[in-house]
Write a structure and sequence with these properties.
Layout (H helix, E strand, L loop, with lengths): L1 E5 L2 E6 L3 E3 L2 E5 L8 E10 L3 E10 L2 E9 L13 E4 L4 E3 L1
Antiparallel strand pairs: 1-2, 1-9, 3-4, 4-8, 5-6, 6-7, 7-8
Length: 94
């Protein structure tokens, strides 16, 4: 079982992650939605598509754009459709 942890709180947990380019992508239904809010940030990956971001809010602390996902993926990235990945101090354990 893999866990995404930030500010001492498990924010996602799954035994069905996908690892691409060193990032563990968690199924969207494994994230604890109470810690996430939509961000206006978007970036483009030439082979995955356009990423959207979430800001994390845990125990009064905010981590802007610390999670990302691809609402629409290219054919090459179909394994991460409906998945969320993390950075900016989010640790992955398991």
């Amino acid at each position: 079982m893999k866990k995404a942890i930030w500010n001492g709180q498990v924010i996602a947990e799954s035994d069905n992650t996908v690892n691409i380019e060193g990032n563990d992508y968690f199924p969207a239904d494994s994230i604890k939605k109470e810690f996430y809010s939509e961000s206006d940030t978007h970036t483009v990956c030439h082979w995955k598509g356009t990423a959207s971001y979430y800001t994390l809010n845990v125990d009064g602390k905010e981590n802007k754009d610390a999670a990302w996902y691809y609402p629409e993926v290219t054919e090459l990235a179909k394994s991460i459709k409906g998945h969320v990945a993390f950075w900016k101090g989010v640790s992955i354990e398991g």
